[in-house]
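Question: does this match?
>
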Amino acid sequence: MEYNFAIKKCTEALVQLTTEDDIETRIRNTFNEVSSLDKEDVSIENLQAVVEWCEKYLSIRETGLKVDGTVEFVSDKNREFGKLAHQITYLCIKIIEDTCGNLKSK
């Protein structure tokens, strides 16, 4: 397993969440980091949680789009992005802790 890769990606995802960009940009950048994780990098349990989080992000990202490309209900969307930020923060910390534990047991 590429434990160091998982630690690096999760750390970078946490950094992306703390930038001064708007919440949608921060979540999109976080998605770009964690979506590259695969079964070689994290446990199956953690990978399933990452996949579920990515699916939630993709479904929220598409919510409220009009035909002309403008967005409706921005405050609802931002509220959902805020929830995603909390979820991925927890998940990234869990992955880092699990991965560090696996490195120590080697």
Notes: The chain has a mean pLDDT of 86.
